[in-house]
Design goal:
By secondary structure, the protein is mainly α. It has two domains: 203 residues, HUPs (Rossmann fold, 3-Layer(aba) Sandwich), CATH 3.40.50; 89 residues, Tyrosyl-Transfer RNA Synthetase (Orthogonal Bundle), CATH 1.10.240.10. The protein is 54% helix and 7% strand. It contains 13 helices and five strands. The radius of gyration is 20 Å and the shape is globular. The two termini are 31 Å apart. The model has no long low-confidence stretch (mean pLDDT 96). Bound molecules: adenosine-5'-tetraphosphate (AQP). The site of adenosine-5'-tetraphosphate (AQP) has 22 residues, from α1.
Length: 327
């Protein structure tokens, strides 16, 4: 059985972009693959996090995994910081990563733009992400479009290591959805929807109450026309909303366009809001049940134990290959 690994940062509330671009695929893959899904809390601290909020968001992301349909009996669900081997392999891979490679990462450029001081962790984070994946010899990594470049670097590092020290790591493949791999911001369709965007109106959080969802969608920026037509070049905002509709309602883009032909943005946005509410309401109910059950910590403890066993095997093998004295 092929192995899948992916993760999300508890750097805010998970958004509809995170769901459509990645989480939705996580749940589908667990029926056919050996899956590892983690909450990448060590990545989240590459930008400042308020300690209380970090803990709450970490639990929320883990509970949302399960609410979205990840079954901890089938998949290994854990926190990155509970498996110390990630940090250790991350360091080893940092020593194999070139500065020029990290400087080219667009996410680093975006997140550091205009900041007076930027933590070194934000710069070296792609090496830690490579460690996350290579520790488990993952074959497939389900991610949204924005992570494609980091995954390329992971592949390069695995190949570099294998060439220098002998065959060790599986070269992972990205698994990027054809539709919805890049959901854009509701207030600016030139930027992707991001959970850490300080403007709450720019994203739909998976835990937003129905009325908040309706308000955010009614206020979503659209062009001055009225035609519900998918044309990302000339109508990026409406095209983004059509993508969201298609993903939430399990329809094709053409079906959505046909449904709203000649109707204008008003009825389209109203129905879109109801589609999103209908998708998220059952997920939110399951989320509340999981939080109330008190089971979450046990699930994470068990997941960390399973993940650690696998991670330790790989870390020892890596260290031996590099010439460390492993006793
Ligand atoms: N807008 C998006 N559309 C589709 N997929 C997306 N992903 C993120 N944004 C979109 C995918 O969600 C997964 C989780 O990513 P992450 O938590 O590691 O961080 P990220 O990619 O940086 O996502 P955010 O929401 O933008 O977080 P912040 O604001 O903290 O940087 C990944 O698979 C990602 O591709």
């Amino acid at each position: 059985m092929k192995r899948v690994l992916s993760g999300m940062q508890p750097s805010g509330q998970l958004t509809l972009g995170n769901y459509i671009g990645a989480l939705k695929n996580f749940t589908a893959l667990q029926h056919t693959h050996d899956c590892y899904f983690m909450v990448v809390d060590l990545h989240a601290v590459t930008v400042p996090q308020e300690p209380k909020a970090l803990k709450e968001q970490t639990e929320a992301v883990a509970a949302l995994y399960i609410a979205a349909g990840i079954d901890p009996a089938k998949s290994t669900v854990f926190l990155q910081s509970h498996v110390h081997q990630h940090a250790e392999l991350g360091w080893l891979l940092t020593t194999l990563t070139y500065m020029g490679e990290l400087e080219r990462m667009t996410q680093f450029k975006d997140k550091s733009a205009g900041k007076e001081s930027v933590g070194a962790g934000l710069f070296t984070y792609p090496s830690l992400m490579a460690a996350d994946i290579l520790l488990y010899n993952a074959d497939l990594v389900p991610v949204g479009d924005d992570q494609k470049q980091h995954l390329e670097l992971t592949r390069d590092l695995a190949q570099r290591f294998n060439q220098r020290f002998g065959d060790t790591f599986t070269i992972p493949e990205p698994y990027i959805p054809k539709l919805g791999a890049r959901i854009m911001s509701l207030d600016d369709a030139s930027k992707k929807m991001s959970k850490s965007n300080p403007n709450q109106g720019s994203f739909i959080a998976l835990l937003d109450p129905p009325d908040v969802i309706r308000k955010k969608i009614s206020r979503a920026v659209t062009d001055s026309g009225r035609e519900v037509k998918f044309d990302p070049q000339n109508k990026p905002e409406v095209s983004n909303l059509i993508s969201i509709y298609a993903q939430c309602a399990n329809k094709s883009i053409a079906e959505v366009e046909a449904l709203y032909e000649g109707q204008g943005y008003g009825p389209f946005k109203k129905d879109l809001a109801e589609q999103v509410v209908a998708l998220l309401q059952p997920l939110q109910e399951r989320y509340r049940d999981i939080r109330a059950s008190g089971e979450l910590h046990n699930i994470l403890r068990e997941g960390a134990q399973r993940a650690s066993e696998q991670a330790e095997l790989m870390l020892r093998r890596t260290k031996e290959k590099m010439g460390f004295l492993v006793l």
